[in-house]
């Protein structure tokens, strides 16, 4: 699963609290260093859902 980043303040088209996407790695690193964005914490529910989806068999067994 790719990392997701959350805006800590308004930046371009993103508002505070929005998940930031469509940026280059350079832009992400720059914004992280300036403290404008932060890595979004994966919720426990999402982690459980992702694990469950990986365990589901698709061949009907």
Number of DSSP E strands? 3
> Which stretches are poorly predicted, pLDDT < 50 over at least 5 residues?
none
Work out the count of structural domains: 1
Query: What's the rounded overall pLDDT mean?
Result: 81
Radius of gyration: 16 Å
The main sheet orders its strands as 2-1-3
What gross morphology would you assign? Answer: elongated
Number of helices: 2
Through-space gap between termini:
26 Å
Quick one: biggest sheet? Answer: 3 strands, antiparallel
Structural class: alpha+beta
Characterization of this structure:
It comes from Acinetobacter terrae. The protein has 61 residues and is of the alpha+beta class. It has one domain. The protein has two helices and three strands; from the N terminus they run ββαβα. It has a three-stranded antiparallel sheet with strand order 2-1-3. The longest helix has 12 residues. The radius of gyration is 16 Å and the shape is elongated. The protein starts with a strand and ends in a 6-residue tail after the last helix.
